Amino acid sequence: MTFLFTPSTVSIPVVGTDERFPVRRVYCVGRNYVDHVREMKEGDERDDPFFFQKPADAVVGDGARIPYPPRTGDFQFEGELVVAIAAEGTDVPVARAQELILGYAAGIDLTRRDRQRDCRERQISWEAGKSFDASAPCGPITKGADLGAAELRLSVNGQVRQRTRIDLMIWNVAEIISQLSADYRLMPGDLVYTGTPAGVGAIGPGDVVRVDIDGLKPLSVTITESGSHETD
Ligand code: MN
Prior knowledge:
Distance between the termini: 26 Å
Number of strands: 18
CATH class: Alpha Beta
Bound molecules: manganese (II) ion
Shape: globular
């Protein structure tokens, strides 16, 4: 038996080891910080957060050069904490959610905001706004980090644009895993982007977007002119 072509598996380095984390699925939480719900002027801040997915091969690592994506004039950053899952789980109680977690990383949920808004107005799925190539930058994974009330900062060209304590999430990490595992069987290799705080904004070619989360390795990517993105 041979494959018709080389199967592609995106992987992310694990800090302090020579191991890499092979990505199976990418789940994202929408509307998980009240200040971001307010700035988007959508929905109701009393509504529960919800989930959407990006393709696994939308993940790119630290240092990636990301071409400005097609068919948008409003390409935006969303700095987010990413959870790396390393055990199977279905209907996981909140109290046991920690058992599924390998570690954490800094991530960006890149968004074609104009396409997302168009999807919402037409009442169709968000995919065109969220699930495009290279839309899920993810930094190195730090195993077993205890983040507590760590601060997340996203900067563009050195200027801080988003800043939050991660314990201000509407659903905390354990609650996210519990909720997500009620809808899907979580498996090793799953990444979960946990939502973004206020301060999202547009970026363009030449911009360097960096996410720092206390206790984790930073993630930095550069936006380039339109074109096909580099693979390694
Ligand atoms: Mn997001």
